[in-house]
Amino acid sequence: MTDPAPQPLSRRGFLQAAAVGLAAVATGLAAFMAARFITPALPHAQLSDFTLDLPAAYPEGQSFVPTARIFIERRGNRFRCLSAECTHLGCIVAWNAPRREFDCPCHGSVFTADGAVLKGPAARPLPVLRLTRDAGGRLLVQRRTSVAPDQAWITI
Ligand code: FES
To answer: I need a labelling partner for 4 at 20 to 30 A (CA). Which of 10, 19, 120, 123 fits?
Structure first.
């Protein structure tokens, strides 16, 4: 006995198959977006210490160092370092110079220039990281060592 010839897909069958396919794609995309939303970026504790440039390389004000995920702030001959990783879920904050604050693009947290939380959902301040100099005079940030804000500044 031979199999019956395949029936052509009806319009209704095609639309049902297309709807199932689109639902599967939408579900997968929603799951990906949800995972991306709740998964923190690489936390600073997983990054090692960074040797930066000589102090003269940093202009007055805030300088973002993307490889180290930090901001170096210079005021004359004084320097300090703040983590650029939002304490909510780890997005990189942006310096808003006119408002003198750090803004997180992900969920709207806002931090002062000292790293204190102005607006959540972040509940903890941006870590102030220990900044020293190596034997050659270059800045060295110790990413695993937070310091109190009143100990943040080093004078060159
Ligand atoms: S990562 Fe959520 S507010 Fe910054």
So the answer is: 19
